[in-house]
Amino acid sequence: MDAPARCLLVENLTVSYNRIPAVHHLSLSLSAGASVGLLGPNGAGKTTLLKAIAGLLPIETGRVSFGDSSTAHAVAYVPQREAVDWDFPITVQALVEMGRFSNLGLWDTYSAHDASVVREAMEITELQSLAHRQIKALSGGQQQRAFLARALAQQASVYLLDEPFTGLDTNAQAGFADALCRLRDLGKLIIASHHNLASVPNLFDEVILINGELVANGSTATTFTDENIRKTFSTSIFSGHTPHP
User: Fold this and answer.
1) What are phi and psi of 215, to 5 degrees?
2) Which of 133, 167, 126 is nearest to 148 (CA)?
3) Closest CA to 183 of 144, 151, 221, 207
């Protein structure tokens, strides 16, 4: 379990596309053991922020760290469902096993320890009974849990999820929310972009509201207010430019 003192620190982060900022001088600090909703209008830079934290986009200014080190091995990223080729012929277990590849050295082989980590990831996400099913045969909620299990198999400390509840029915949303709660209770930090404002208080302990730049962040009880929502969704600070993900 991560020590409570371990924090994800984002300092003065700017990410641009074709010299136009999508995320502008953003700073925040988030402690492990929390579920955080990342909120903002379309084009506000939510996906950009997640990918920058994950190291998938170049940073123009600033830095991102977790504890005393970079986020290279601390972060796992789960993309939006539409970004995944669900026709790829792979079983649930094989998909989750892929999460161990980043932990294997050049000459290392898949070990009993790796198998144990994969088994635990599938238990946390309640996928044991679906281990040998093709991912294309899964429901939307099961698919999301399978990719969460792959991320969990990386043994990361920070989990970044891009619109994980989109397209899920009520039961699937509840099941996926339970899986995220189990990760949070293990001391993990979960940051999930989300667009359904009505469900935010039931899903997240904390919120980050952005619209190109940081509007507010803190506990859901004190930060998810009508005033902050209006500030976030009323206008874009980059309204004259092409919106970014």
Assistant:
1) -95, -50
2) 126
3) 151
